[in-house]
Write a structure and sequence with these properties.
Blueprint (H helix, E strand, L loop, with lengths): L3 E6 L2 E6 L2 E3 L6 H5 L4 H20 L1 H12 L6 H36 L3 E8 L5 E8 L3
Antiparallel strand pairs: 1-2, 2-3, 4-5
Length: 139
């Protein structure tokens, strides 16, 4: 198991797993579910189902818009905008909740990783070798 690093950028989130940049969080499914932790699995599967529900809700305004194009007189402005607005609000809510579940799953996954100890050799400017010991503890 390797740690998952989250890189927040302006209007974009990227993940680093095993020195690979990942743009789609669904690509983290394999390492997250291989942790065999029920809390990680539950949170990731909630994330996945809420994103799927959000995408399905996104189809509704598209369908109403197509219907309104062909049958303009049968669709009132109030009905159209209430469908578009409510689907926007519901999708926003589901996406925020899904992101919280993903963040919880990644945080729990990273807390399960064992402590890491490493040794590193590094040359000084006068060509002498220095031995360094590092210890990483997940909190």
């Amino acid at each position: 198991m390797k740690p998952i690093e989250v890189q927040q950028q302006f209007l974009r989130v990227r993940f680093v797993y095993d020195r690979q940049l990942i743009d789609n969080p669904l690509a983290l499914q394999i390492p997250l579910l291989q942790s065999h932790d029920p809390e990680v699995s539950l949170n990731f599967l909630k994330y996945k189902s809420q994103r799927k529900a959000s995408n399905m809700i996104g189809i509704i305004p598209a369908g109403v818009s197509l219907y309104a194009i062909f049958y303009r007189e049968k669709v009132s402005d109030g009905f159209y905008w209430s469908i578009v607005g409510s689907s926007f609000l519901l999708r926003t809510y589901l996406n925020i909740r899904a992101t919280k579940h993903l963040t919880t799953a990644i945080g729990r996954y990273n807390s399960l990783l064992p402590n890491q100890v490493g040794i590193q050799f590094e040359p000084l400017p006068d060509n002498q070798q220095v031995l360094g010991l590092t210890f990483t503890k997940n909190f």
